[in-house]
Amino acid sequence: MKLFEVYNAYDISPIKGKGAYVHDKKGNEILDFYGGHAVISVGHSHPHYLKRIQSQLEKLGFYSNAVNNELQEILANKLGQLSGLKDYQIFYSNSGAEAVENAIKIASLETGKHKIISFSNGFHGRTSAAASATDMAKAQFPIFSSMASTKLTLNDEAALIKAMEAGEHCAVIVEAIQGWGGIYEAEPSFLQLIQDLCKKHHAKFIADEVQAGYGRSGKFFSFQHSDVNPDIICCAKGMGNGFPIGATLFKSDIQPKKGTLGSTFGGNHLSMAAGIAVLEIIKNENLVQNAKAIGEYLKINLQNIPNVKSCRGKGLLIGLEFDFPVKPIIQNMLFKENVFCGSALHKNTLRLLPPLNISQLEADIFCNKLKKVVELHRQTISEKV
Ligand SMILES: Cc1ncc(COP(=O)(O)O)c(C=O)c1O
Predict the structure, then answer these.
(1) Ligand 1 centre from 237 Cα, in Å?
(2) 2 occurs within a structural domain
(3) pTM here?
(4) Which of 39, 152, 247, 362 could pair with 358 in a Cys bridge, judged by C-beta atoms 3.0 to 4.6 Å apart?
(5) What is the mean pLDDT of residues 297-324?
(6) Which whole-number Å values give the CA distances from 149 to 26, 120, 170, 172, in the listed order?
Protein backbone atom coordinates (compact mmCIF):
# COMPACT_ATOMS: atom_id res chain seq x y z
CA MET A 1 0.00 0.00 0.00
CA LYS A 2 1.32 3.46 -0.87
CA LEU A 3 1.29 6.32 1.62
CA PHE A 4 -0.98 9.25 0.80
CA GLU A 5 1.27 12.31 0.65
CA VAL A 6 -0.24 14.54 3.33
CA TYR A 7 2.22 17.45 3.13
CA ASN A 8 5.43 18.24 1.24
CA ALA A 9 7.49 16.55 3.94
CA TYR A 10 11.18 17.23 4.60
CA ASP A 11 13.49 14.36 3.71
CA ILE A 12 14.43 13.72 7.30
CA SER A 13 13.53 10.83 9.65
CA PRO A 14 13.58 11.60 13.37
CA ILE A 15 13.84 8.45 15.47
CA LYS A 16 14.31 9.76 19.00
CA GLY A 17 14.08 12.97 20.99
CA LYS A 18 15.38 14.44 24.23
CA GLY A 19 14.44 17.84 25.60
CA ALA A 20 14.64 20.46 22.84
CA TYR A 21 16.42 18.10 20.42
CA VAL A 22 15.42 15.29 18.05
CA HIS A 23 17.86 12.82 16.51
CA ASP A 24 17.44 11.52 12.99
CA LYS A 25 18.31 8.21 11.35
CA LYS A 26 21.61 9.60 10.05
CA GLY A 27 22.74 10.57 13.56
CA ASN A 28 22.07 14.33 13.27
CA GLU A 29 21.02 16.17 16.43
CA ILE A 30 18.38 18.74 15.48
CA LEU A 31 17.33 21.68 17.65
CA ASP A 32 13.53 21.67 17.59
CA PHE A 33 12.14 25.19 17.22
CA TYR A 34 9.05 23.77 15.53
CA GLY A 35 7.98 21.46 18.38
CA GLY A 36 6.32 19.01 16.01
CA HIS A 37 3.89 21.83 15.14
CA ALA A 38 3.44 23.41 18.59
CA VAL A 39 2.76 20.02 20.14
CA ILE A 40 5.90 19.50 22.22
CA SER A 41 5.23 21.53 25.36
CA VAL A 42 7.38 19.88 28.04
CA GLY A 43 10.19 18.65 25.78
CA HIS A 44 10.80 15.34 24.07
CA SER A 45 10.91 12.25 26.31
CA HIS A 46 10.67 14.15 29.60
CA PRO A 47 11.45 11.59 32.37
CA HIS A 48 8.34 12.41 34.43
CA TYR A 49 6.12 12.17 31.34
CA LEU A 50 7.63 8.78 30.41
CA LYS A 51 7.29 7.49 33.97
CA ARG A 52 3.61 8.41 34.26
CA ILE A 53 2.70 6.92 30.88
CA GLN A 54 4.73 3.76 31.46
CA SER A 55 3.29 3.11 34.90
CA GLN A 56 -0.27 3.78 33.67
CA LEU A 57 0.22 1.40 30.75
CA GLU A 58 1.34 -1.33 33.13
CA LYS A 59 -1.92 -0.85 35.08
CA LEU A 60 -4.60 -0.06 32.48
CA GLY A 61 -4.12 1.52 29.07
CA PHE A 62 -7.71 2.06 28.04
CA TYR A 63 -11.27 1.93 29.12
CA SER A 64 -14.10 3.93 27.65
CA ASN A 65 -16.43 6.58 29.10
CA ALA A 66 -18.85 3.83 30.07
CA VAL A 67 -17.07 3.64 33.45
CA ASN A 68 -15.77 6.05 36.11
CA ASN A 69 -12.24 7.27 35.45
CA GLU A 70 -10.81 9.34 38.28
CA LEU A 71 -7.84 10.39 36.12
CA GLN A 72 -10.27 12.59 34.18
CA GLU A 73 -11.13 14.47 37.37
CA ILE A 74 -7.49 14.76 38.43
CA LEU A 75 -6.61 16.35 35.09
CA ALA A 76 -9.64 18.66 35.19
CA ASN A 77 -8.75 19.87 38.70
CA LYS A 78 -5.11 20.46 37.84
CA LEU A 79 -6.10 22.31 34.65
CA GLY A 80 -8.53 24.50 36.60
CA GLN A 81 -5.84 25.34 39.18
CA LEU A 82 -3.05 26.06 36.73
CA SER A 83 -5.14 28.06 34.27
CA GLY A 84 -7.02 29.92 37.00
CA LEU A 85 -10.31 29.13 35.23
CA LYS A 86 -13.26 28.55 37.51
CA ASP A 87 -16.74 27.31 36.72
CA TYR A 88 -16.01 25.50 33.48
CA GLN A 89 -16.87 21.93 32.51
CA ILE A 90 -14.55 19.84 30.36
CA PHE A 91 -15.25 17.38 27.55
CA TYR A 92 -12.27 15.29 26.42
CA SER A 93 -11.57 14.30 22.84
CA ASN A 94 -8.50 13.43 20.78
CA SER A 95 -7.48 16.37 18.58
CA GLY A 96 -7.77 20.08 17.98
CA ALA A 97 -10.36 19.72 15.24
CA GLU A 98 -12.56 17.64 17.54
CA ALA A 99 -12.20 20.20 20.32
CA VAL A 100 -13.36 22.91 17.89
CA GLU A 101 -16.07 20.78 16.30
CA ASN A 102 -17.59 20.13 19.72
CA ALA A 103 -17.29 23.79 20.69
CA ILE A 104 -19.31 24.81 17.62
CA LYS A 105 -21.83 22.03 18.22
CA ILE A 106 -22.32 23.20 21.81
CA ALA A 107 -22.78 26.81 20.68
CA SER A 108 -25.38 25.87 18.07
CA LEU A 109 -27.24 23.61 20.50
CA GLU A 110 -27.29 26.30 23.17
CA THR A 111 -28.49 29.12 20.90
CA GLY A 112 -30.54 27.19 18.36
CA LYS A 113 -28.67 29.01 15.57
CA HIS A 114 -26.36 27.63 12.91
CA LYS A 115 -24.13 30.39 11.53
CA ILE A 116 -20.67 31.20 12.84
CA ILE A 117 -18.24 34.09 12.51
CA SER A 118 -14.52 33.43 12.08
CA PHE A 119 -11.55 35.49 10.90
CA SER A 120 -9.21 35.86 7.96
CA ASN A 121 -6.04 33.75 8.28
CA GLY A 122 -7.68 31.72 11.06
CA PHE A 123 -7.12 27.97 11.31
CA HIS A 124 -9.48 25.76 13.31
CA GLY A 125 -9.05 22.24 11.91
CA ARG A 126 -10.17 20.09 9.02
CA THR A 127 -13.40 18.41 10.12
CA SER A 128 -16.78 19.73 9.02
CA ALA A 129 -17.71 22.78 11.13
CA ALA A 130 -14.07 23.41 12.08
CA ALA A 131 -13.04 23.40 8.42
CA SER A 132 -15.86 25.77 7.56
CA ALA A 133 -14.47 28.24 10.11
CA THR A 134 -10.94 27.83 8.72
CA ASP A 135 -9.70 30.39 6.18
CA MET A 136 -8.09 27.87 3.84
CA ALA A 137 -9.45 27.02 0.40
CA LYS A 138 -7.99 23.49 0.45
CA ALA A 139 -9.84 22.68 3.69
CA GLN A 140 -13.26 23.35 2.09
CA PHE A 141 -15.41 20.54 0.65
CA PRO A 142 -18.72 20.83 -1.27
CA ILE A 143 -20.58 18.68 1.27
CA PHE A 144 -19.94 21.23 4.02
CA SER A 145 -20.78 24.31 1.95
CA SER A 146 -24.00 24.99 3.85
CA MET A 147 -21.88 25.55 6.97
CA ALA A 148 -19.68 28.25 5.43
CA SER A 149 -18.70 30.76 8.11
CA THR A 150 -18.92 34.53 7.86
CA LYS A 151 -15.22 35.46 7.52
CA LEU A 152 -14.22 38.89 8.78
CA THR A 153 -10.90 40.70 9.00
CA LEU A 154 -9.28 40.27 12.41
CA ASN A 155 -9.57 43.45 14.53
CA ASP A 156 -12.12 45.08 12.18
CA GLU A 157 -14.58 46.25 14.83
CA ALA A 158 -17.04 47.92 12.46
CA ALA A 159 -17.34 44.76 10.33
CA LEU A 160 -17.96 42.65 13.44
CA ILE A 161 -20.66 44.98 14.77
CA LYS A 162 -22.40 44.98 11.38
CA ALA A 163 -22.17 41.20 10.89
CA MET A 164 -23.66 40.49 14.31
CA GLU A 165 -26.47 43.04 14.07
CA ALA A 166 -29.06 40.58 12.76
CA GLY A 167 -28.39 38.20 15.68
CA GLU A 168 -28.27 35.13 13.46
CA HIS A 169 -24.86 33.75 14.52
CA CYS A 170 -24.46 31.09 17.19
CA ALA A 171 -20.77 31.78 17.79
CA VAL A 172 -17.69 33.85 17.12
CA ILE A 173 -14.52 31.75 17.04
CA VAL A 174 -11.13 33.41 17.34
CA GLU A 175 -7.48 32.59 18.04
CA ALA A 176 -6.29 35.34 20.40
CA ILE A 177 -2.91 34.79 18.72
CA GLN A 178 -3.18 33.25 15.27
CA GLY A 179 -0.77 30.38 14.66
CA TRP A 180 -0.90 29.10 11.09
CA GLY A 181 -1.99 32.53 9.82
CA GLY A 182 1.37 34.09 10.75
CA ILE A 183 1.24 35.06 14.47
CA TYR A 184 -1.18 37.97 14.22
CA GLU A 185 -2.79 39.02 17.51
CA ALA A 186 -6.38 39.97 18.25
CA GLU A 187 -6.38 43.33 20.07
CA PRO A 188 -7.61 43.13 23.70
CA SER A 189 -10.34 45.67 22.79
CA PHE A 190 -11.41 43.43 19.89
CA LEU A 191 -11.71 40.38 22.17
CA GLN A 192 -13.71 42.52 24.60
CA LEU A 193 -16.00 43.55 21.75
CA ILE A 194 -16.51 39.90 20.73
CA GLN A 195 -17.46 39.11 24.33
CA ASP A 196 -19.88 42.06 24.58
CA LEU A 197 -21.52 41.39 21.22
CA CYS A 198 -21.89 37.68 21.95
CA LYS A 199 -23.73 38.55 25.18
CA LYS A 200 -25.91 41.10 23.40
CA HIS A 201 -26.84 38.87 20.47
CA HIS A 202 -27.20 35.52 22.27
CA ALA A 203 -24.09 33.96 20.71
CA LYS A 204 -21.12 32.11 22.23
CA PHE A 205 -17.55 33.41 22.35
CA ILE A 206 -15.23 30.51 21.41
CA ALA A 207 -11.50 30.91 22.08
CA ASP A 208 -9.45 28.50 19.98
CA GLU A 209 -6.40 27.89 22.17
CA VAL A 210 -5.31 24.73 20.37
CA GLN A 211 -1.99 26.27 19.31
CA ALA A 212 -1.49 29.36 21.48
CA GLY A 213 -2.77 27.81 24.72
CA TYR A 214 -1.22 25.64 27.42
CA GLY A 215 1.42 28.15 28.46
CA ARG A 216 2.90 28.81 25.04
CA SER A 217 2.16 32.56 25.04
CA GLY A 218 3.57 33.18 28.53
CA LYS A 219 0.08 33.00 30.09
CA PHE A 220 -1.76 29.71 30.44
CA PHE A 221 -4.23 30.73 27.73
CA SER A 222 -3.43 33.41 25.19
CA PHE A 223 -6.78 35.19 25.71
CA GLN A 224 -5.61 35.78 29.30
CA HIS A 225 -3.42 38.63 28.02
CA SER A 226 -6.81 40.38 27.80
CA ASP A 227 -9.53 40.76 30.40
CA VAL A 228 -12.08 38.37 28.85
CA ASN A 229 -13.79 35.10 29.79
CA PRO A 230 -14.78 33.13 26.69
CA ASP A 231 -17.85 30.92 26.92
CA ILE A 232 -16.06 28.00 25.30
CA ILE A 233 -12.32 27.19 25.04
CA CYS A 234 -10.65 24.64 22.76
CA CYS A 235 -7.38 22.88 23.71
CA ALA A 236 -5.19 20.19 22.17
CA LYS A 237 -1.56 20.16 20.87
CA GLY A 238 0.57 20.94 23.98
CA MET A 239 -1.98 19.27 26.25
CA GLY A 240 -0.53 15.80 25.64
CA ASN A 241 3.02 16.68 24.49
CA GLY A 242 2.46 14.36 21.53
CA PHE A 243 -0.16 12.06 23.03
CA PRO A 244 -3.37 12.85 21.08
CA ILE A 245 -5.65 14.72 23.49
CA GLY A 246 -8.20 17.44 22.81
CA ALA A 247 -10.60 19.16 25.17
CA THR A 248 -13.53 21.54 24.98
CA LEU A 249 -14.05 23.66 28.10
CA PHE A 250 -17.39 25.40 28.53
CA LYS A 251 -18.93 27.61 31.20
CA SER A 252 -21.08 25.75 33.68
CA ASP A 253 -24.25 27.64 32.71
CA ILE A 254 -24.01 25.88 29.34
CA GLN A 255 -25.75 22.55 29.74
CA PRO A 256 -25.65 20.24 26.72
CA LYS A 257 -27.90 17.23 27.28
CA LYS A 258 -26.30 13.92 28.19
CA GLY A 259 -25.63 11.96 25.01
CA THR A 260 -25.14 14.98 22.76
CA LEU A 261 -21.34 14.80 23.11
CA GLY A 262 -19.39 11.57 23.04
CA SER A 263 -16.13 9.88 22.07
CA THR A 264 -14.82 6.31 22.27
CA PHE A 265 -11.22 7.28 22.92
CA GLY A 266 -11.64 10.72 24.52
CA GLY A 267 -10.53 10.80 28.17
CA ASN A 268 -9.00 7.31 28.13
CA HIS A 269 -6.62 6.28 30.89
CA LEU A 270 -3.36 6.51 28.98
CA SER A 271 -4.16 9.92 27.50
CA MET A 272 -5.15 11.23 30.93
CA ALA A 273 -1.85 10.00 32.40
CA ALA A 274 -0.01 11.90 29.64
CA GLY A 275 -2.12 15.02 30.21
CA ILE A 276 -1.62 14.94 33.99
CA ALA A 277 2.15 14.53 33.56
CA VAL A 278 2.23 17.57 31.25
CA LEU A 279 0.41 19.75 33.80
CA GLU A 280 2.64 18.54 36.64
CA ILE A 281 5.76 19.39 34.64
CA ILE A 282 4.38 22.79 33.59
CA LYS A 283 3.69 23.58 37.25
CA ASN A 284 6.83 22.10 38.85
CA GLU A 285 9.21 23.62 36.31
CA ASN A 286 7.42 27.00 36.02
CA LEU A 287 7.14 26.58 32.28
CA VAL A 288 4.58 29.33 31.70
CA GLN A 289 7.03 31.80 33.26
CA ASN A 290 9.91 30.24 31.31
CA ALA A 291 7.98 30.66 28.05
CA LYS A 292 7.46 34.33 28.90
CA ALA A 293 11.08 34.99 29.93
CA ILE A 294 12.80 33.09 27.10
CA GLY A 295 10.26 34.43 24.61
CA GLU A 296 11.09 38.02 25.60
CA TYR A 297 14.83 37.26 25.47
CA LEU A 298 14.47 35.71 22.02
CA LYS A 299 12.46 38.63 20.69
CA ILE A 300 15.10 41.16 21.79
CA ASN A 301 17.79 39.19 19.96
CA LEU A 302 15.75 38.32 16.88
CA GLN A 303 14.67 41.89 16.21
CA ASN A 304 18.27 42.89 15.47
CA ILE A 305 18.78 40.36 12.69
CA PRO A 306 19.18 42.08 9.31
CA ASN A 307 16.15 42.10 6.98
CA VAL A 308 13.70 41.43 9.85
CA LYS A 309 10.58 43.56 9.29
CA SER A 310 8.68 42.60 12.41
CA CYS A 311 8.80 40.21 15.32
CA ARG A 312 5.27 39.27 16.42
CA GLY A 313 3.72 37.11 19.08
CA LYS A 314 4.09 36.41 22.77
CA GLY A 315 6.09 33.91 24.81
CA LEU A 316 7.26 31.02 22.69
CA LEU A 317 4.84 31.62 19.83
CA ILE A 318 6.90 33.94 17.66
CA GLY A 319 6.43 35.12 14.09
CA LEU A 320 9.58 36.60 12.59
CA GLU A 321 8.78 38.46 9.39
CA PHE A 322 11.57 39.10 6.88
CA ASP A 323 11.51 41.27 3.76
CA PHE A 324 11.94 38.12 1.64
CA PRO A 325 10.27 34.66 1.52
CA VAL A 326 11.65 32.40 4.25
CA LYS A 327 11.52 29.01 2.50
CA PRO A 328 15.31 28.98 1.83
CA ILE A 329 15.95 30.04 5.43
CA ILE A 330 13.86 27.15 6.77
CA GLN A 331 15.66 24.67 4.49
CA ASN A 332 19.14 25.94 5.29
CA MET A 333 18.41 26.02 9.01
CA LEU A 334 17.41 22.37 8.79
CA PHE A 335 19.91 20.93 6.33
CA LYS A 336 22.96 23.11 7.07
CA GLU A 337 22.48 24.02 10.75
CA ASN A 338 20.32 21.17 12.11
CA VAL A 339 17.49 23.38 13.37
CA PHE A 340 13.76 22.85 12.79
CA CYS A 341 11.71 26.05 12.22
CA GLY A 342 8.08 26.41 11.18
CA SER A 343 6.52 28.20 8.23
CA ALA A 344 3.23 30.13 8.13
CA LEU A 345 0.58 31.15 5.64
CA HIS A 346 2.43 34.44 5.36
CA LYS A 347 5.38 33.44 3.13
CA ASN A 348 7.86 35.88 4.66
CA THR A 349 7.19 34.75 8.22
CA LEU A 350 9.17 32.19 10.17
CA ARG A 351 7.04 30.54 12.86
CA LEU A 352 8.92 29.59 16.03
CA LEU A 353 7.30 27.15 18.45
CA PRO A 354 9.99 25.48 20.58
CA PRO A 355 9.23 23.40 23.71
CA LEU A 356 8.30 25.56 26.70
CA ASN A 357 11.36 24.41 28.66
CA ILE A 358 14.09 25.63 26.32
CA SER A 359 17.01 27.30 28.05
CA GLN A 360 18.67 30.65 27.38
CA LEU A 361 21.64 28.73 25.98
CA GLU A 362 19.41 26.97 23.45
CA ALA A 363 17.87 30.34 22.56
CA ASP A 364 21.40 31.72 21.97
CA ILE A 365 22.35 28.71 19.81
CA PHE A 366 19.21 29.27 17.75
CA CYS A 367 19.83 33.01 17.27
CA ASN A 368 23.47 32.49 16.25
CA LYS A 369 22.55 29.83 13.71
CA LEU A 370 19.74 31.95 12.31
CA LYS A 371 22.05 34.97 11.96
CA LYS A 372 24.55 32.82 10.07
CA VAL A 373 21.90 31.45 7.70
CA VAL A 374 20.39 34.90 7.08
CA GLU A 375 23.84 36.36 6.36
CA LEU A 376 24.52 33.60 3.82
CA HIS A 377 21.14 34.24 2.20
CA ARG A 378 21.86 37.97 1.96
CA GLN A 379 25.13 37.23 0.20
CA THR A 380 23.39 34.87 -2.25
CA ILE A 381 20.76 37.50 -3.01
CA SER A 382 23.33 40.27 -3.53
CA GLU A 383 25.40 38.02 -5.86
CA LYS A 384 22.30 37.42 -8.00
CA VAL A 385 21.54 41.16 -8.36
C1 LIG B 1 -5.58 27.05 16.27
C2 LIG B 1 -5.82 25.65 15.79
N3 LIG B 1 -7.05 25.09 15.94
C4 LIG B 1 -7.30 23.84 15.56
C5 LIG B 1 -6.31 23.06 14.98
C6 LIG B 1 -6.62 21.65 14.55
O7 LIG B 1 -5.93 20.74 15.36
P8 LIG B 1 -5.69 19.23 14.88
O9 LIG B 1 -4.72 19.25 13.77
O10 LIG B 1 -5.18 18.55 16.13
O11 LIG B 1 -7.01 18.68 14.46
C12 LIG B 1 -5.03 23.59 14.79
C13 LIG B 1 -3.99 22.80 14.13
O14 LIG B 1 -2.95 23.26 13.70
C15 LIG B 1 -4.79 24.92 15.19
O16 LIG B 1 -3.58 25.49 15.04
Answers:
(1) 7
(2) no
(3) 0.98
(4) 362
(5) 97
(6) 46, 11, 11, 10
